[in-house]
């Protein structure tokens, strides 16, 4: 095969197909030999459902997967001067149009013409051998940062996007619902930004145990179906949050957690909905209004988020290697998805196509 790529062809079904090797055709392009990739919950969701945005995939209308990746530059546009062939890079897997209103505002994650890796059947994913990306969306890894660590630039950027949205300030308290990868890295980035007290909430002891060691934070175990208002009251009392948390991040997508965010937040607090769940849920609008809460939706990453992520990696501000649970071979990708779907591991990774 010239350029093997993993694609989803139905519910719980995938295969490796041959695709054309991308070529340099513009002034700001890089071809990357993918060396490592991360397994994201969205990958697993698309594979398990065999659909994206409610649209089923098939053998003919397949979905490429993968958007967390690092690799080595094998080809560059001649005009690119700040990178060289042979550089190891973390990849921001986005290609916005750069001319629309949203792009000009600096929120290119909202670009209506965005070509994001594996975001549709027409957009290649990073679970492949060679991947083309805008050269300015390649971030050179210093010698002391491994390619494996470089994969984690993407989830760190997602976390940076959420943390920057809620404007965490030194000394503030933060409650995070969900101790999965995104909840953990949100907590880690918030600590870098100066959060004083961080409480992670989850239903699994194993996740909370890891979170406590990784973040040196407070943890709170809840249960499925717990009353959101009662849960929030218990968190506030147990961790001496006085009138409530200064900031809240929801990283599960569970409706009960989204409601609990409103109850656990202090008046005037900021909270961000990072997790994706049901399209429509019940919502405590009265509490939301009388507290004058500032709610933010969060989608991927945008201007400046990768710079934060790279600064964290370069300066060893977060022990990201602790997040890497297991490395799978490229051809064993379904095993990696299955493990992630069953809750095994924090960040499972996949090696690139073998030489």
From TrEMBL:
GO terms for biological process: D-xylose metabolic process; L-arabinose catabolic process to D-xylulose 5-phosphate; sorbitol catabolic process. One of its GO terms (molecular function) is D-xylulose reductase activity. Residues 182-314 form the Alcohol dehydrogenase-like C-terminal domain. It is an enzyme of class 1 (oxidoreductase). Pathway: Carbohydrate degradation; L-arabinose degradation via L-arabinitol; D-xylulose 5-phosphate from L-arabinose (fungal route): step 4/5. Its EC number is 1.1.1.9. Its cofactor is Zn(2+). Pfam families: ADH_N, ADH_zinc_N. Gene3D superfamilies: Medium-chain alcohol dehydrogenases, catalytic domain (3.90.180.10), NAD(P)-binding Rossmann-like Domain (3.40.50.720). Keywords: Carbohydrate metabolism, Metal-binding, NAD, Oxidoreductase, Xylose metabolism, Zinc. Residues 26-142 form the Alcohol dehydrogenase-like N-terminal domain. It catalyses: xylitol + NAD(+) = D-xylulose + NADH + H(+). InterPro entries: ADH-like_C, ADH-like_N, GroES-like_sf, NAD(P)-bd_dom_sf, SDH-like. Binds 1 or 2 Zn(2+) ions per subunit. Xylitol dehydrogenase which catalyzes the conversion of xylitol to D-xylulose. Xylose is a major component of hemicelluloses such as xylan. Most fungi utilize D-xylose via three enzymatic reactions, xylose reductase (XR), xylitol dehydrogenase (XDH), and xylulokinase, to form xylulose 5-phosphate, which enters pentose phosphate pathway. Belongs to the zinc-containing alcohol dehydrogenase family. This is D-xylulose reductase. It comes from Penicillium cataractarum.
